[in-house]
Amino acid sequence: MRVLFVCLGNICRSPTAEGVFRRELEAAGLAHRVEVDSCGIGDWHVGRAPDPRSADAARRRGIDLSELRARQLAADDFTRFDYLLAMDHDNLAALRAQCPGGCRAHIGLFLDFAGHIDRAVPDPYYGGEGGFEEVLDLIESASRGLVEEIASRLEGQRP
């Protein structure tokens, strides 16, 4: 099973989602069965570490983002990943616009897994510290829901 988190530049929301989701998979004993990555729609930050404010907020919750580096969405991501999860509606529209015909991946909003239908993870880049905490709260909630769905899908399959 493969999961890709997508935001605009891959320095705030999607790397945070990658780090949080990895932690949730570890806690559920599924880390060895699920590949996780993140990327951005744009190429502005390719090769850069996550925004220091995102990294600091995550670190305060025991999540290390220091090894992550930004990358841009690639055409083969649509065939490599089972889930491509956008942080907001603009990211979702960009994913759908780039999705090749016949794509079988689940493409949707990440917060759908938290029961926040039609709600976006807000971009904290231009806001204050509280925005990064709100992002973490939302991502933690959605991560738990996504782990439940993936665990259900993996049930009965060989490890």
Overall structural domain count: 1
Sheet with the most strands: spatial strand order: 2-1-3-4
Low-confidence stretches: none
User: Which structural class do the helices and strands define?
Assistant: alpha/beta
**Mean of residue pLDDT values:** 95
State the CATH class.
Alpha Beta
Query: How many extended strands?
Result: 4
Number of helices: 5
Q: Sheet with the most strands? A: 4 strands, parallel
- Which geometry do the CA atoms define? globular
**Helicity level, as a percent range?**
40-55%
- According to CATH, what is the topology? Rossmann fold
By CATH, the architecture is named 3-Layer(aba) Sandwich
CATH superfamily: Response regulator
Q: Per DSSP, what share of the residues sits in E-state strands of 2 or more residues? A: 5-15%
**How far apart lie the N and C ends?**
11 Å
Spell the H/E element sequence: EHEHHEHEH
State Rg. Answer: 14 Å
Protein name: protein-tyrosine-phosphatase
Pfam family, one: LMWPc
Family: Belongs to the low molecular weight phosphotyrosine protein phosphatase family.
Domain Phosphotyrosine protein phosphatase I: 1-149
